[in-house]
Amino acid sequence: MGFTRRDALRVLSGAAVSGLFFAFLKIPGAKALPRPPGALTEKAFIQYCTRCYRCIDVCPADALRPAGLFDGVPNLGTPVLDWKKCIFCQECIRVCPTGAIVKIPEDEIDIGNAVIDRDTCLDWTRKRRCGICYKACPYDAIRLEGRRNPVVIEEKCTGCGLCEQRCPTDPKSIVVFYDKYRRFDPPEGTFMVRLEDRVEPYEYPPPDFRTWFMRRLEKLARQHGLID
């Protein structure tokens, strides 16, 4: 029996579900590969990530995309984080079925580090009192030097970006960089053992299959520039 139209549709549907169909239609440019919060060290992450796209599907902030060909063939289909969009919801952490993303609580997430430009900061330049970044930080990672000038405490900063979002200057006087982020070593022994789950219940319960499938197609098409 020859290759029928039904067979072709079945192949295309499978490709769409995996995301590879869209990856080949438009190959993204080469860039560094920031990983989801809680990701294993890179070698282990590549080994245990099954490219199932669950973390990408569940992200309510569209902060994850699949890696393309120019990101390197071994990385193809693995999740890449846009840390500017990450809202620390932990949904990607909850749904990972293999342990490529460790199931950690929010207070152990670390994806970046905030840096203050003292030449433009309103407080440091004495243009006016501000303190907005200090008030915005939920992790007590900013202290005030001399009761006025903000200073980042690196060991407490998680890269959540709230300080940058609320900074009133243009350009921003405090910016988060993805140069200090925490990666986890794989546990000793086999991954067949269920890993400890230390996250809280879902904030965004997973949708029914039909809704999930349509959202996946729309999200992947948008990520690869096929729709606006």
Helix/strand layout:
Layout lengths: L4 H14 L1 H6 L16 H7 L5 H5 L5 E3 L12 E3 L9 H5 L17 E4 L15 H5 L5 E4 L3 E4 L9 H5 L7 E4 L31 H15 L5
Antiparallel strand pairs: 1-2, 3-6, 4-5
Number of domains: 2
Low-confidence stretches: 21-31
Structural class: alpha+beta
Query: Largest beta sheet, briefly?
Result: 2 strands, antiparallel
Count of individual helical segments: 8
Give the radius of gyration: 20 Å
Distance between the termini: 40 Å
Number of strands: 6
Shape: elongated
Question: What is the structure about, briefly put?
Answer:
By secondary structure, the chain is an alpha+beta fold. The chain has eight helices and six strands, in the order H-H-H-H-E-E-H-E-H-E-E-H-E-H.
Walk me through what this model shows.
- It contains eight helices and six strands; from the N terminus they run ααααββαβαββαβα.
- The protein is of the alpha+beta class.
- The chain has two domains: 5-109 and 182-223, no CATH class; 113-177, Alpha-Beta Plaits.
- Strands 1-2 form a two-stranded antiparallel ribbon. The protein has a two-stranded antiparallel sheet with strand order 3-6. A two-stranded antiparallel sheet has the order 4-5.
- The longest helix has 15 residues, at 209-223.
- The relative contact order is 0.18.
- The model is unreliable at 21-31 (pLDDT under 50).
Key terms:
228 residues; alpha+beta; Alpha-Beta Plaits; 2 domains; two-stranded antiparallel sheet; two-stranded antiparallel ribbon; 8 helices
